[in-house]
Amino acid sequence: MTKHKFSLIACLLLVSFCIVAAQEAQQVKVQEPEYLGQPHYLDPSSGALTPLEKQGAVMKVGMKGLGGMKGAYEVKGGKSPVRLASNQKIEFVVRVASLQVDPNSVIQLVSLKAKSSKRELVAMKGGLFGDMTLDSHAGAVDFNASRYGESSLKIAAARPLAPGEYALKAPQAVGIPGMGSAQSEIFYCFGVDASTSGPVKQNQ
């Protein structure tokens, strides 16, 4: 009888221990960005967050070849100091005001065209005397989103990112500026290298 009581008590203690351990595991909070709408790179091994390069992208309208015009967002510098390797797991975390909205309405992943002293996203095109057409999906890269923590989304490209320059931005529709005028938007930039290096690099 004593032996059975001892076994019963041991089982109850084991169950209680498992319940407490499960509750503690649920209470462990993942790291989330402090501010709304500012994406961070998510380290796949540690869960640590690294801020991306924050740049004011200026929309400039000008001539495009013969008989055409274009409007492009321009970011200073031909290469982002935030470098990721193409063979590593690339995910980002962004804090949002509500987890009930469509992720595509709060964040957009875009590919940038790198030049010697700038990166560019052509968002408008038109004829010399015709109307400019805004392409709100210019350079867009498909991504998957899932809930992360209490108030954030985890973002990952639907397909592996090829080496190049990229940015995360709010998918805001903008007015069309006049010739020579400018309109700005915030880009959170990073670059992908064909490298075997693992961790994120911040070049100086």
The total of helices stands at 1
N- to C-terminal separation?
73 Å
- Strands of the widest sheet, in order across it, are 3-4-8-7-12-13
Structural class by sheet pairing and helices: mainly beta
Gyration radius, rounded: 24 Å
Strand content: 35-45%
Query: What general outline do the C-alpha atoms trace?
Result: globular
The count of strands amounts to 14
- Name the poorly predicted regions: 20-27, 173-182
Helical content band: 10-25%
Biggest β-sheet strands, sense, barrel: 6 strands, antiparallel, barrel
Quickly count the domains: 2
- Oligomeric grouping of the chains: single chain
- Helix and strand element order: HEEEEEEEEEEEEEE
Give the averaged pLDDT, no decimals.
80
What this model shows, in words?
The protein is built from one helix and 14 strands, in the order H-E-E-E-E-E-E-E-E-E-E-E-E-E-E. With 204 residues, it is mainly beta. It has two domains: 1-29; 31-202, no CATH class. The strands form two sheets. Strands 3-4-8-7-12-13 form a six-stranded antiparallel barrel. A five-stranded antiparallel sheet has the order 2-1-6-11-10, with no helix packed on it. The radius of gyration is 24 Å and the shape is globular.
